[in-house]
């Protein structure tokens, strides 16, 4: 099963693609979708195009996305929510089932501790997927963590 994990953000969206086969997880791809355009419609178009390309390239069978339930910066909650909507719509139009996870659930699934620090989660993602290099940037590591969470909390094969 191919799983896409998405960490939505205001200017960068982290993603991670993993494959689960017989309980083993393998990293297929990770990175960020950056959208710094001032024109909001151009941002949405570029994000939509990038997500569509990921779907065509990897053909995920399920995707996980981080829930927004608490935000420190009130000015960014609406733009992040809008991007989540664009992403969720594209994946729904492609008949890809969705799972939503809170940051606490993601940390718990990856590190075993819901209050783990960001660097602890990144280290565990690297170990779980058997990667040699550090995952950069942080948003991409978060996308992989979300994909791992989805793989570990659903009976997907």
Which runs of at least 5 residues are low in confidence (pLDDT < 50)?
none
Order of helices and strands: EEEHEHEHHH
Query: Taking Cα atoms only, what radius of gyration do you get, to the nearest Å?
Result: 15 Å
Distance between the termini: 5 Å
Shape: globular
Write the CATH architecture name.
2-Layer Sandwich
CATH topology: the name is Nucleotidyltransferase, domain 5
The biggest beta sheet is recorded as: 5 strands, mixed
Pfam families: RuvC (PF02075)
Binding site for Mg(2+) 1: 7, 139
Family: Belongs to the RuvC family.
Cofactor: Mg(2+)
Q: Briefly, what is this?
A:
This protein has 157 residues and is α/β, with parallel strands linked by helices. It has five helices and five strands, in the order βββαβαβααα.
Describe the structure.
The termini are close together. This protein has a single domain, classed as Ribonuclease H-like superfamily/Ribonuclease H (Nucleotidyltransferase, domain 5, 2-Layer Sandwich). By secondary structure, the protein is of the alpha/beta class. The protein has a 5-stranded mixed β-sheet. The chain is globular, with a radius of gyration of 15 Å. The chain has 5 helices and 5 strands; from the N terminus they run βββαβαβααα.
Task: Spell out the blueprint of helices and strands.
Layout: E1 2-7, E2 12-21, E3 24-34, H1 40-58, E4 62-66, H2 74-93, E5 98-101, H3 103-111, H4 118-129, H5 138-153
Parallel strand pairs: 1-4, 4-5
Antiparallel strand pairs: 1-2, 2-3
Q: What structural keywords apply?
A:
single chain; 157 residues; alpha/beta; Nucleotidyltransferase, domain 5; five-stranded mixed beta sheet; globular; DNA damage; crossover junction DNA endonuclease activity
